[in-house]
Amino acid sequence: MKNWNIYLSGEIHTDWREQIEEGTKAANLPVSFHAPVTNHGYSDDCGVEILGAEPDKFWHDNKGANINAIRTRTLINKADIVIVRFGEEYKQWNAAFDAGYAAALGKPMIIMHGAKNQHALKEVDAAALAVAETAEEIVRILRYVINAELDVSS
Question: How many structural domains does the chain have?
């Protein structure tokens, strides 16, 4: 049976990734999950920590973004499915970029967000093959896609 590589992009302030991972484990789905670096401090400062300080904040951020892009691009390129979560509280420009990158590569995408962001994300949603609000819905989508099983009791 194929092992599916799934990339989990998006907000880092809730446990949505863990919910999806636990749900797929409970459903015994053959999946491997990958994600960006979710330690905010590491992600912001990796460039200057590795390559040296920058007096200009633009170049500080640029170094970090470029190093993070090595991971992100590699893992999105290898993904069978890209799941992008947009939270309610913060603007996730990086998640929008990841969604655009995945769409340009023709990767199947599942977008996750609440009703509050529906209008703002209409173009992102249009590029997705599914738009969900909950981790449970995503697990059910994955179960259907991977095992052709539909749990009608949920």
Answer: 1
